[in-house]
Design goal:
By secondary structure, the protein is of the alpha+beta class. It has three domains: about 1-150 and about 280-320, BirA Bifunctional Protein, domain 2 (2-Layer Sandwich); about 155-275, Bira Bifunctional Protein, Domain 2 (BirA Bifunctional Protein, domain 2, 2-Layer Sandwich), CATH 3.30.930.10; about 325-380. About 35% of the residues lie in helices and about 25% in strands. The strands form three sheets. The chain has a nine-stranded mixed sheet with strand order 1-5-6-12-11-10-7-9-8, sandwiched between helices. Strands 14-13-15-16 form a four-stranded mixed sheet, with helices on one face. A three-stranded antiparallel sheet has the order 2-4-3. Strand 10 (about 270-275) and strand 11 (about 285-290) form a beta hairpin. Helix 1 (about 15-35) runs antiparallel to helix 5, helix 6 (about 165-170) packs antiparallel against helix 12 (about 235-245) and helix 8 (about 180-190) packs antiparallel against helix 9 (about 190-200). The radius of gyration is 26 Å and the shape is elongated.
């Protein structure tokens, strides 16, 4: 289909790519299940206030909106499934114990989230509810890295941050607290001149810490550097200790720490991470802790999780090899039908040639055929 028939950053997925994506989806869901995660399927549409409850401030701009002709209320097409799953845990399942949930489905964005990104990601993810300890964060981090390894990606860089650092620094500075949105934007872009101008009326200790955050970026040694540069506040110390512990759980992945990378600051409540891989300009997976979201749905629950875009991840995989298949003639003879059904029940792909047509498939390599020989339908190797 010509590109001009589809909106910008929206594309069809053709057979070979679709098979890569679907096989990866199945493999990842099986991996999640091996860890004890239960699958849920939230709806594509919800009332807008439900989709925005507990979400970050930028979510309103990312959601396509429409009017429900049955109720007259404004609805939204989901741009992220995480808050939907939090709603299911808090409002529908209503369990008191630890709950592990996973999901997979399309989401829709009003604008692409990054360079060359699609506006219709196929989101897959896993979440843990009910445990506030760092053990849950470590499991989610482990599962995210295991998912990338399952996709055949061996070189991963894990970027870690913690919203507790910024929140602890500005906690006792009223002027800083009222400007937190501006601080967030300046820190994310590492705009030091802008920070100098914004923080000139802050407490001296707060200002000094704000100006130090953009430079606190690098390998694991950044944690020790931050301990010497940042004020010795309980919240800062706790956040750095948590980052230090999680770094020790990473395994073979390269680790970077960026204490100014606060993407999702208004949504997350603790450790945040992003996984980067060669060949993609955007993070292939993002995750972190978001304890306050369940409270917005009527029940406070500790929560942590991660998600990734299957379409983007599949772009890194090699071209899928064609599947071995069997060619069979069209016919209604009981013996032929029985042979074909036996082969399909055994897990074989059997493609019947329709009268007057040759099969043209990019997906399948017909290296065998069902032929009639000496009164029986048999399987014969081709070429």
């Amino acid at each position: 289909m010509p590109n001009w028939l589809l909106p910008e950053n929206i594309a069809d997925v053709l057979p070979s790519e679709a098979r890569k994506i679907e096989e990866l989806r199945r493999a990842l869901l099986d991996k999640f299940r091996s860890y004890g995660y239960e699958m849920v399927m939230p709806p594509m549409l919800e009332y807008l206030e439900s989709l925005l409850t507990g979400a970050g401030q930028d979510m309103d701009l990312r959601i396509f909106k429409l009017v429900d002709q049955l109720s007259g209320r404004t609805m939204g097409v989901r741009a992220d499934m995480t808050t939907q799953v939090a709603r299911i845990d808090a409002h529908l399942l209503n369990r008191q114990t630890v709950t592990r949930l996973c999901y997979a489905g399309s989401v829709l964005h009003t604008r692409p989230s990054g360079l060359h990104a699609t506006r219709e990601p196929l989101q897959i993810g896993a979440e843990i509810y009910g445990h506030a300890g760092l053990e849950a964060d470590a499991e989610i981090q482990e599962l995210a890295l295991a998912s990338l390894k399952l996709a055949g990606i061996s070189k991963v860089r894990l970027d870690l941050c913690h919203v507790g650092v910024l929140r602890a620094i500005i906690a006792d500075d009223e002027k800083a607290r009222t400007r937190d949105a501006e601080l967030f934007c300046l820190l994310e872009s590492k705009d030091v001149p802008g920070l100098r101008d914004l923080t000139k009326d802050f407490n001296p200790a707060t200002r000094e810490a704000m100006l130090a955050l953009p430079s606190l970026y690098g390998d694991a040694s950044t944690i020790e550097k931050a301990r010497h540069v940042l004020p010795r506040m309980p919240g800062v110390t706790r956040a750095l200790d948590e980052l230090d512990l999680l770094i020790r759980q990473v395994g073979n992945a390269d680790v970077t720490v960026d204490l100014a990378d606060l993407r999702g600051y208004h949504y997350h409540s603790g450790v945040m991470f992003a996984a980067y891989v060669p060949g993609l300009p955007n993070a292939v997976a993002r995750g972190g802790r978001y304890d306050h979201v369940g409270e917005a749905f009527g029940r406070a629950r500790p929560a942590t999780g991660f998600s990734l875009d299957l379409r983007e991840l599949a772009r890194l995989l090699p071209v899928a090899e064609r599947k071995r298949a069997i060619r069979a003639p069209w016919g209604t003879e009981p013996a032929l039908r029985l042979k074909i059904n036996e082969l399909r029940d055994a897990g074989e792909i059997v493609i019947q040639t329709l009268p007057g047509h040759e099969n043209e498939q990019d997906e399948f390599d017909c290296d065998r055929a069902v032929v009639f020989n000496n009164g029986n339908w048999i399987l014969q190797l081709l070429g």
